[in-house]
Amino acid sequence: MLLSYLVRFLLQILCLALLLGMASCVSVSHQNMPEENSADLGLLKKKCTLCHGLPHPKRHTKEEWGHLITIMTKRMNEKNISNTKEELSKIKSYLQRNAR
Ligand code: HEC
To answer: Cβ(49)–Cβ(57) under 8 Å?
Structure first.
């Protein structure tokens, strides 16, 4: 009796953990981004999700974004991912004007 109660209890915890996990995944892919539907955000979504998730501008300060764009440009060149100066400067200014 005690054992079956314990198993049920553990299963309930497992289900709860799974549900919470799914909820947090959903919230990551639907995070609120500034300038919703703008061309610059579209560019960020297109160019900056090829290797990792969509980075939120509030993750870094204006200065940090300056360095990060340089590093990410290197990463893109290493992988032969096409990028133009114009695209990168648009992405950079989007990130910097919405930065932390
Ligand atoms: C070619 C693959 C690639 C592309 C494309 C790419 N990144 Fe990255 N990014 C990486 C890697 C790899 C790291 C891990 C750190 C490192 O090795 O430099 C990273 C780390 C980051 C981080 C790190 C830290 C954090 O806050 O979690 C940010 C921010 C970031 N990238 C932003 C961008 C932005 C903005 C773009 C678009 C301009 C972009 N990335 C495009 C490969 C990429």
So the answer is: no
